[in-house]
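OP here, attaching both records as promised.
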Amino acid sequence: LTGAQPEASWWTLAGTLAVVVASFSYAAASLIAQGRMAGTGPLALSAATMIGAAVVLVPFGLVQLPSSAPDAATVACVVALGVAGTAIGLLLFFRLINRYGSARAALVTYL
């Protein structure tokens, strides 16, 4: 139970609410993707998702720019996580939705 502790702050409750809203958004996105991707391939959906996320997140990143540029190893790690962890993951996820439907594809999140 979040927020029931006397020492819990507003930020604790706000963080828990953000997790709940994200969960509902994740479920809604799967249903919306299944309904709208009839003529669209997984690669196009993955690219659109990544571009949309970049458009939303870049302004927040620009506000928090570090004082010095990161080294090459750090940049390589971020690129590897973005490509391997996110882009390929989204590509596989949208392929699952396309082939098996959103209900079965959502089961992947429970693994």
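Record two, same layout:
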Amino acid sequence: RAPAVPPSAPAEPAADRFKRYVGREFLLRGADGRRRVVLADVAECTADPRLEQFSLLFVADEPFADGFCEIFLADLGRVEVFLAAVGGRGSAATYEACFTRFRDRADDGR
């Protein structure tokens, strides 16, 4: 059983904040309980220079229901995401959380 997710201030989602945690285990708290998932990839897409668009791919040992949940890593904090199953192999399942946000003026050089 995964440990409780400690309270903390929500983290601002940004691709760069997650890249260094690829391969690390996160705690996940969803409607059907707590579990551990591994951040497998951070995929970026730029359709508009004013936007930051990226997705997080997580791998879980076993499938669980799509939906809103919190992911937590001690040195990152907690982030609420919507995870949807996008594939898997054997008993493992892959889930994706997608983000689109306006870039800060500091991010785009203005």
